[in-house]
Design a protein that fits this description.
Helix content is 43%, strand content 15%. It is of the alpha/beta class. The protein has 2 domains: 7-147 and 302-368, Periplasmic binding protein-like II (D-Maltodextrin-Binding Protein, domain 2), CATH 3.40.190.10; 149-300 and 375-413, D-Maltodextrin-Binding Protein, domain 2 (3-Layer(aba) Sandwich), CATH 3.40.190. Strands 7, 8, 9, 10, 11, 12 and 14 form a 7-stranded mixed β-sheet that branches. A hairpin with a 2-residue loop joins strand 4 (135-136) and strand 5. Helix 2 (51-68) packs antiparallel against helix 13 (327-337) and helix 16 (376-387) packs antiparallel against helix 17. The longest helix has 19 residues, at 395-413. The chain starts with 12 loop residues before the first helix and ends with a helix. The relative contact order is 0.18. Mean pLDDT is 91; it is low at 1-29.
Length: 414
């Protein structure tokens, strides 16, 4: 699951590569000796969104341990990327662990991940988009543990106060411009989002653009479509009907929505857990993101369950992952802490059980997956830095910088 500070807050493994050598230097000719004991001791490292997620993973691990006879110890990382980098460099990694999509290619290229995808007989129950996010050199390396998409979250009390009804939920960019203007008054901003491509990228997609081509071999950032998307955002920022979260003294869109500083925000289904915990009395609804010139567009996020190449318990680790990614277990996780299942079959059941999440679920059908190129996390970090100044900066220059930096990363990554 992608949590509040989301992808932008993650430290870059690329920096740690230089300092620690974030690779296990694994190759098939020097496989680690495998534990052949009937009962094995497995370690699992997770980056958690809170007590609910931690408890759910520990409960699932305990159930597996009882059934299999293996022992499973679940640990919560304080800094996932740093701890993994150090563990890989020291050849003492956890057996199973969360891998974020924007670090996946770094770890896969470094040989730190054991590719077990060919051992999953029903891998096609995971969408092509999700499988692509966690494939390297044409091989499915690890299974996505869940999925998230972005929707338009609306404070329904502020919506009604502005004289708007469900019929006014914006369907197009111009609709969004209109309602954001009407909602901006009395200390409330119509639309508040984070100042990062993981939110603003939806407008690039809706305009018909994206950062790379579908194969992630060619940069497509410096395009008229992407410029149109960012220019539309800039126009809302200049009008005052849209602001970034930090400009309304909040840390993310959910906080702005919960505190009544935003009438609308763009967030994923992790918003549900945050609102229940921090703002249980705030009423909100989630609508599909408005369509742009090229149609509907949203972004998809996920982590995968990585198995260490250096693990002495690979077979048992893959067996554990199969349990953790089963349809029943994914639905249990969804109920416990709000994530959507990554299995297509389980997602259909989830949609029936959680009708309020319909917009997020429907978004899975047309969502754009993340860029997963080795070393690209640094490129996106720089892109996010420049997006902070989008209100006054030249969108075309921002995209030209992204194009240039991305081309360099692709050249190094191949």
């Amino acid at each position: 699951m992608v949590t509040r500070t989301a992808v932008a807050a993650l430290a870059t493994c690329a920096a740690l590569l230089a300092a620690t050598g974030c690779s296990s230097n694994f190759d098939d000719s020097k496989e680690p000796a495998q534990d052949k004991a009937a009962k094995q001791n497995l370690t699992v490292l997770i980056a958690t969104s809170g007590d609910a997620e931690t408890g759910a993973v520990k409960a699932a691990a305990a159930a597996y341990a009882k059934k299999s006879g293996n022992t499973v110890t679940v640990e919560v990382a304080k800094d996932m990327n740093q701890q993994l980098a150090q563990a890989f460099a020291g050849h003492k990694p956890p057996d199973v662990f969360y891998v974020n999509s924007d670090q996946f290619a770094n770890y896969a290229k470094g040989g730190s991940l054991y590719p077990y995808g060919d051992q999953i007989s029903d891998a096609d129950d995971f969408s092509q988009q999700l499988r692509s996010s966690f494939s390297y050199d044409g091989k499915l390396v690890c299974l996505p543990k869940d999925t998230s998409t972005l929707g338009l979250a609306i404070n329904t009390d502020l919506w009604a106060k502005a004289g708007l009804t469900e019929k006014d939920y914006p369907k197009t960019w111009e609709d969004l411009r209109t309602v954001a203007g009407k909602l901006t008054r009395d200390g409330v901003t119509g639309l508040v989002t984070s100042d990062e491509y993981q939110r603003l990228g939806v407008f690039m997609k809706q305009a018909g653009g994206w950062v790379t081509d579908a194969d992630q071999k060619t940069m497509t950032a410096d395009s008229p479509e992407n410029a149109e998307g960012l220019s539309f955002v800039q126009s809302l920022l200049k009008s005052g009907s849209m602001k970034f979260a930090k400009n309304v003294d909040t840390s993310w869109g959910g906080e702005a929505l919960g505190k009544g500083k935003a009438a609308m925000t763009i967030e994923g289904n992790w918003l549900d857990g945050g609102m229940k915990l921090d703002y249980p009395d705030v009423k909100y609804a989630v609508a599909p993101l408005p369509a742009g010139p090229a149609g509907q567009g949203t972004l998809a996020f996920s982590n995968c369950w990585g198995v260490a190449a250096d693990s002495a318990h690979r077979e048992a680790s893959v067996d554990l992952v199969k349990t953790l990614t089963s349809a029943d277990q994914q639905l249990a996780f969804a109920d416990a802490f709000g994530v959507m299942p990554s299995r297509t079959s389980a997602l259909a059941t989830y949609a029936q059980q959680f009708p309020a999440a319909k917009a997020w679920v429907d978004g899975s059908a047309y969502a754009q997956g993340p860029v997963t190129i080795a070393g690209f996390d640094k490129v996106l970090s720089q892109f996010n830095t420049e997006l902070q100044s989008l209100r006054t900066a030249d969108p075309k220059k921002i995209l030209a910088d992204l194009q240039r930096n991305g081309e360099q990363a692709i050249a190094k990554g191949n």
